[in-house]
Amino acid sequence: MKDSPQIGYSKKVMDHFMNPRNVGVIEDADGIGTVGNPVCGDQMEVSIKVEGDRIVDIRFRTFGCGSAIATASMVTELAKGLTIEEALRITRDDVATELEGLPPRKMHCSNLAADALHRAIEDYRAKQAGGSRGAPD
Amino acid sequence: MVYLDHASAMPVDPRVLAYLRDHGDALCGNPSSLHSVGLAARRELEAARGRVAALINAPVSSSIVFTAGATEANNLAIRGTAERNQKHGKTIAVSAIEHISIINPAKYLVKQGFELATVPVDADGLVSPDVLAGLMTPDTTVVSINYANDEIGTIEPVRELARLVHEEEHRYLHVNATAAGGRIPIDVQSDEIDLLTLSSSDLGGPRGAGALYVAPGVRLQTVMPGGGQERGLRSGTENLPAIAGMGEAARIAGGEMEQESRRQQKIRDALIAGIGGIGETYLTGHPRLRLPNHASFRFGRIEGESILLNMDTLFGIQVATGSACTSQTLEPSHVLLAIGLTHEEAHGSMIMTTGRDTAEEAAPGVIDAVRQTVERLRALSPL
Ligand code: FES
Questions:
Q1: A54-63 and A43-51 as β-strands: parallel, antiparallel, unpaired?
Q2: Is the pLDDT of residue A131 over 80?
Q3: From the CA of B378, how many Å to the nearest CA of chain A?
């Protein structure tokens, strides 16, 4: 039923909303990414701990709707254990697909989650490069 | 399950359903037919008209025009009156917290060359008589102010506003009483209301019927030309089962209003006191001048859709929200913006509306569920 729009949230979205994985903030994070949603004003924060180019720990916090919380939870699950290079290849679509789809109106929330992850990695790289730049925003 | 979203949809009162069952035979004819089956239908139609008229103390029952719902009644009121009276002026004034079925017809009129003046409200959602007086000009012919607002519960000083509107001869006050009807006493004569919208569903009747009260002497034109039913103001064969249900719902609501409002107000006050005690929680709408069944809040640092989902999934409690994340446009509710909230503040909105089926004993459990919901979501929030 490709042409009928998804109504409501998939079981997987509800599972991640009700039991979000990797909630919180890493105190001595190697990278932190914070993004605001220009569409509806939500905020997402992802912090990562990197050891030898691999994301060994990742946490998120979200001020947003059910799908924003679920997509953030999913992105942390997808990225955990990946190398930086691999994690950078996680796209917005991957997050939505892993969640068994999102209602069309909610697709932008998955952008937020992927963007926050990418920002966190950028932040990590900037710190690695020896820049004094802290977390964006 | 505790259903606290009566502003979105009310369950049909079982007594209304019983009425429709008992009068089924009389409801199948066409009120325009002259034979006995048509006459029986006509009698039902006129009985319903009388019952709706009585609820708002309309001077004559013929001042009630049945429509297919509040949206249609609002369209008829705004467009029908503005267009009919355009030789007297081409400006309409609409409060900033009106329902979309008033704002959009007003915008339609702007495309037809009318001027639209938006009447601001204060932080509690009240229209100030002084502000309205300063906004109206001799060119203003229609003013639309809701009796009470369905998102923040605030009740407007309609009587005072009506007096100001009528300082000009060809100027009419339309009042959307969808949220207020059957919940607080409305007297269109002493309030000097020219046009008033009611919805069947909000009275506990079936969907598919609404009514526009048109005060004697107010001139308007139809927005639905056709066979000339409803004094030519709303053509189309009447949706008699829905209309008869609306009439019975109006009768029941009128009879029980005092007692039922007092009962629901107790629940409302318990919710406001209990939920208001949670940190960073603020009431939206007026603290005293508010509907007896309406408790609305905003919570700092969390978002309304996730509140709604959490309350529903974890506790079986249904609430509403004005958060941007739930709207089609991804804009926060215009009502919350109009009372001065920022986008971020509007995000944390939660609206609870009780009904006849809401038990007084439910309040403590609801308060506890809200507290747990807020705590859980705040633990997830970066703010
Ligand atoms: S974050 Fe606002 S719609 Fe998802």
A1: antiparallel
A2: no
A3: 8
| Res A2: pLDDT | 44
Residue A50's domain comprises: 21-127
Strand order in the sheet with A31-36: A31-36, A43-51, A54-63
Residue B237 has pLDDT above 60, yes or no: yes
C-alpha separations of B120 from B96, B131, B321, B376 in Å = 5, 8, 22, 36
| DSSP-derived 3-state class of residue A68 | helix
* C-alpha–C-alpha distance, residues B338 and B120, integer Å: 7
| Residue A71 within any structural domain of the chain | yes
Topology classification of domain B57-239: Aspartate Aminotransferase; domain 2 (3.40.640)
Pocket of ligand 1 (CB under 6 A): A 37, 40, 42, 64-65, 67-68, 106, 109; B 325
Q: Mean per-residue pLDDT for B264-283?
A: 97
pLDDT at B13 over 60: yes
Number of domains in chain A: 1
In a domain, A53, yes or no: yes
Asked if residue A95 has pLDDT above 50, the reply is: yes
Looking at chain B, the domain(s) classified CATH 3.40.640.10 span 57-239
A12 domain-assigned: no
Res. A121: pLDDT tops 60? yes
Q: What class has domain B2-8+257-380?
A: alpha beta
Best residue among A42, A44, A74 to mutate for probing ligand 1, ranked by most atoms within 8 Å of CB: A42
Q: Closest chain A residue to B310 measured between Cα atoms?
A: A18
Nearest-Cα distance to chain A for B246, in Å, is: 31
Of A9, A20, A62, the CB nearest to B382: A62
Contact A96, A8 (CB under 8 A): no
CA distance linking residue A72 with residue B118, whole number of Å: 40
CB-nearest partner of B325 from A17, A44, A65: A65
Protein residue whose Cα sits closest to atom 2 of ligand 1:
B325
Question: ipTM of the predicted structure?
Answer: 0.87
